[in-house]
Amino acid sequence: MAFYEHLRAYREQLDITQMEAARRIGIDHSVLSKYEKGDLAIPIDLLMKIKEVYAISNDDFLNMLEDKPSKSKNPGFEARESRSKYIETFQEEYVTPLASFKEFRLLVMDIKSVSKEEKELKRYIKGLLKKD
After folding, report:
1. Neighbours of 32 (CB within 10 A)
2. pLDDT value at residue 75
């Protein structure tokens, strides 16, 4: 598997979109798409930014570059750990600075309540469909 394939697989393992990843890396999503397809070579300075944004361990990153399988004894655990690191850095970078604004806090509460109402509505609709 080539590096670009590892890169895409790792991003997908983190469960983040190309759009989100590209924004965090500081590039256009179409450029990231080309990197992930192998249509465009990734500049060396950008490799370190990608490693940092995706929270890839040094060992995993070297294995990706050298096209070697991960030496991980528990890849599922490491994937969750990388995802947790990604979420943590995302929160530090984006959420924490906004938390001091009451408008942001209200927005988050509104989103949460809409999400809860939507779940209740889906359950209600499913219940109605089961009755038929």
Report:
1. 24
2. 64
Question: How many whole angstroms separate alpha carbon 127 and alpha carbon 22?
Answer: 41
DSSP letter for each residue of 17-72: -HHHHHHHHTS-HHHHHHHHHTSSPPPHHHHHHHHHHHT--HHHHHHHHTT-----
Fill in the DSSP letter of residue 54.
H
Q: Do residues 82 and 55 touch, judged by C-beta distance below 8 A?
A: yes
Tell me the whole-structure pTM to 2 decimals: 0.69
Q: Contacts by 38-45 with C-beta closer than 8 Å and gap 24+?
A: 38/2, 38/4, 38/5, 42/3, 42/4, 42/7
Instruction: Give the model confidence (pLDDT) of 70-120 as tens digits.
Output: 766 666 677 788 888 889 999 999 999 999 999 989 988 888 888 778 888
Q: What is the DSSP letter of 42?
A: P
**Residue 96, pLDDT score:** 93
Residue 67 near residue 3 (C-beta atoms within 8 A) = yes
